[in-house]
Amino acid sequence: MKRQKFIGSICPLLLASMMASPVLLSCSKEEVPPEPLSEEEENYLKFKELIGAQGSYTEGKKLYIDLSHQRYEAVKLVGDFVNDLDNGLLILRKDEENYLAFDNCCPHLGSRNLWTFSNNKFRCSNHGNSFGIGGDFTAFCSSNSRSGNLKQYGIALYKDLLTVDFSA
Q1: Could you give the angle at the alpha carbon of 50 between the alpha carbons of 141 and 33, nearest 5°?
Q2: Owning domain of residue 160
Q3: What is the pLDDT of residue 129?
Q4: How many Cα atoms are found within 13 Å in the side-chain-facing hemisphere of 87?
Q5: Which of the four pLDDT bands, split at 50, 70 and 90, describes residue 15?
Q6: How buried is 161 (Cβ within 10 angstroms: 0-12 exposed, 13-18 middle, 19+ buried)?
Q7: CATH number, domain at 135?
Q8: What average pLDDT score do residues 39-60 get?
Q9: Largest pairwise CA distance in the chain
Q10: What's the total number of domains in the chain?
Q11: Which residues contact 168 (CB under 8 A, 6 or more apart)?
């Protein structure tokens, strides 16, 4: 092949490749970094993973409960409750947006099962004593009290993650 013919055939290819590079670069999309997650969202994802198949996870004096877990299906309806024997809690669905958490230990003699709920009171089926859900007078576990309110814990709700604070 002659030099002139070679240069004539290679120059258009070389010129096209040199021109295509800036065009291709200008067409590529610059990746935008994702927005950082809020602290609530980070905690939500962290504890949902830690909870796993158990339905709840304890860290220090806080209990994290996945309300979408089958163990807690009963609190999908307003006015219903779950007696969570594993965690020592009665979890009540107060209204569409609010939940309450109480010690499930009967103030009379310390029973932890067989509760019913109606008219804003939990009734222990072992002895028939009823205990309220207000904050006026708290009757503590095994205090031999036959009236008063069950001990209530502070809670926080984010999406379907209920956090119960045992120190509050």
Answers
A1: 135
A2: 39-165
A3: 93
A4: 26
A5: very low
A6: buried
A7: 2.102.10.10
A8: 95
A9: 111
A10: 1
A11: 153, 154
